[in-house]
Amino acid sequence: MYKSILVPLDGSKNDEVVLAHVKTLAKQWGAGVKLILLHRLAPADDPFEKNVQMEDGSSGWRAKRKAETYLPHLEHMVAQEGIKVLAEFLVVEEPEADAIVRYAEDNNCDLIVLANRERSPIGRFFFGNIEEKVRRRSTLPVLFVSVRQS
Question: How confident is the model at residue 150 (pLDDT cuts 50, 70, 90)?
Fold first, then answer.
């Protein structure tokens, strides 16, 4: 049914909860898995301003350094199950939801799997809800995995 599953990561404990479900689905369907970890640059027209956001010591640099150890760990964890997996760190300028949807379409993904993070109304106002935006903007099926502890 599905041959390529996209899993946008957020670098939190939610990732492992989502991946537990994704591994089961991928094995059942014989699907490959694409893991992406995004870092969004602040909008800037000047190339110098964009470069500064990724220089040593910047938040972009720290995100990249974390991804260099985090992604291979998750990639290995999924590959151990006999699942074809690709993990990528992406630096984007567009909103995260748009980047996720575009990546899924450009890379022939069949399904997007996201953690269903709950935010308060104030949290949604200040931080938005990337998951909900992906659901509304994607033409692909989107599966939400509850990360709520029972």
Answer: very low
Domain positions in the chain: 4-146
Q: Which CATH superfamily is domain 4-146 in?
A: HUPs (3.40.50.620)
Q: Where are the beta strands (DSSP E) in the chain?
A: 4-9, 32-40, 85-92, 111-116, 142-146
Task: Please name the helix (run of DSSP H) or strand (run of DSSP E) that holds residue 49, with its range, or none.
Answer: helix 47-52
DSSP bridge pairs for 6: 34, 112
List pLDDT tens digits, range 78-134.
999 999 999 999 999 899 999 999 999 999 999 999 998 766 566 555 556 888 889
CA distance 120 to 115: 16
Question: Rounded to an integer, what distance in angstroms lies between the CA atom of residue 109 and that of residue 126?
Answer: 30
Tokens read off for 106: 């450009």
